[in-house]
Every structure is written in C-alpha cells, then in structure tokens.
Amino acid sequence: MHSSILPDQKRTTSLEGTKVENILLFVHILFAAIWLGGAVTSAILLNSAKNLEPGQARTIIQNIINLAKFVFLPMSVLVYITGTGLISVAGYSFGEPWISAAFAGVIISIILGVVFHARAGRKAMAAATSDNAKELTGALKAWRIIAYIDLAIITTVLALMVYKPGA
Q1: Which of 138, 72, 131, 142 lies closest to 106, judged by CA?
Q2: Do 31 and 75 touch, CB atoms closer than 8 A?
Q3: Alpha-carbon 36 to chain mean position
Q4: Is 6 among the domain residues?
C-alpha cells in the first residue's frame, strides 16, 4: 500500500460501491497515457516531417499543432487536476518530494507546450507555407529538440508516479 492507513480504516468515500480513489486513479492513468502518447506521436511526426518538402510538411505540421491543442495540452492539465484529486483522497502529502517533482514536471511541460511548442509550430508552419526549405529544416530541428525535452519530462513524471521514490 502507498499510505500508512490501516486496512480496516476507510480512506475514501464510496461512490456506488466503487472507491473514488480507484476512479481517480484510473482516470489519472488514462489521461497520463494519452498525454505520453501525444508526446510520442508528436516526436514521430516531427521526425517524419524533416525529410519532406515544405508543401508536404504543412499537413504534418498542422496535425502536430492540432494534436497539441486538442490532445496534448488538455491531457496535461487533466493529469494535473486528477493528480491533485488523487493526492487528496489517497492520503498522500503534497510535501512528498516525488509529488512535488511530478507536479513541477507537469507544470514545466504545460509551459513548454504553451510557449515553446506553440512558437516552434508557428515558425515551422510559416517556413512551410512560404516554401522555404532551409528555414523549415531549422525550425523542425529546433521543434524536435523541444519535443524530445518534453518527452523526457513526461517520462520522468510518469516514472515518479509509478515508482514514488522515497514514499
């Protein structure tokens, strides 16, 4: 078990026979899986775009931008929200180092996405739209670096959630 609560003590309230903690855990893991999947998909798409002509790359760039807006960002926010709820009902403390590090990683990933991914996407789209292959190559390279950093952060956050070092 992950807390010091004894088995005969009630840790959460019931919701039609199912513990709120279990529901939150399931939803949290689901959102985290989609979040990680979005990061992996973005990295794969960025790699595939690097060898394309600007006109061909536009569609992939737009798909990555849409993925970020409609999947990646919402899932990272939902991971944060469900994580907060899960900590509250599962008996964890916000002061635990692995929780603080995981929250910091989620927040950094959100900022990275909103600021740097968005800027890199606009730059790559502008280069592709203007049919500037050299500028597109540079923009995609910079974007891939951001994507790999974000993927490393997300993977670290997930490892912290799974292994709970120091708990």
Answers
A1: 72
A2: yes
A3: 5
A4: no
Quick: pLDDT tens for 38-96. Answer: 999 999 999 999 999 999 999 999 999 999 999 999 999 999 999 999 998 888 899 99
37 lies in some domain: yes
Q: Which domain holds residue 92?
A: 19-163
The model's pTM: 0.86
Angle at CA of residue 52, ends 51 and 54, nearest 5°:
130
At 68, which CATH number? 1.20.120
At 138, which amino acid appears? G
Ramachandran angles phi, psi of 161, nearest 5°: -65, -40
User: Where do the H-state alpha helices sit in 68-132?
Assistant: 73-90, 97-111, 118-129
Total domains present in the chain? 1
In a domain, 5, yes or no: no
